[in-house]
Structure formats: structure tokens, C-alpha cells
Automatic annotation (TrEMBL):
Keywords of this entry: Ribonucleoprotein, Ribosomal protein
Family: Belongs to the universal ribosomal protein uL30 family.
GO biological process: translation
Quaternary context: Part of the 50S ribosomal subunit.
Pfam families membership: Ribosomal_L30
Record CDD domains: Ribosomal_L30 (cd01658)
UniProt name for this protein: Large ribosomal subunit protein uL30
Taxonomy, superkingdom: Bacteria
One of the record's GO molecular function terms: structural constituent of ribosome
InterPro entries documented for this protein: Ribo_uL30_ferredoxin-like_sf, Ribosomal_uL30_bac-type, Ribosomal_uL30_ferredoxin-like
Gene Ontology cellular component terms for the protein in this record: cytosolic large ribosomal subunit
Residues in Large ribosomal subunit protein uL30-like ferredoxin-like fold domain copies: 4-54
Length: 59
């Protein structure tokens, strides 16, 4: 299974509550924070909801 590095690059200020909760579910609490996740449909769906706030690279 592929690993994904997800980095928060934009602020969650003025975003809908669902997007804020999506970032928290991914483990992103601060700007510039990087987390590593397995590539599975659940994680990809969460990333898709906040794709304008994060950058994704393969590890």
C-alpha cells in the first residue's frame, strides 16, 4: 500500500465546519504540519474534501 505525505498549506480560518473536522480527522492541527497516511479510499476521500488546503506527495 502506498504512503501519502499530507501537508497543510492554507489556513482553515473561514472554512466550513465539515472541512475543519476533515483536517482534524487527517491529524492536521497547524499550518505546515505534515502527516503520513496509507493510501486507502477513506483517506483519499478526506483529502479530496480539503484538497484546496493541503498538498499531497507520495512517500
Amino acid at each position: 500500500m502506498a504512503k501519502l505525505l499530507v501537508k497543510q498549506v492554507r489556513s482553515k480560518i473561514n472554512c466550513p465546519l465539515t472541512q475543519k473536522r476533515g483536517l482534524e480527522a487527517l491529524g492536521l492541527r497547524k499550518m505546515g504540519q505534515v502527516v503520513e497516511h496509507d493510501s486507502n479510499p477513506t483517506i483519499l476521500g478526506m483529502i479530496n474534501k480539503v484538497k484546496h488546503l493541503v498538498s499531497v506527495t507520495e512517500a
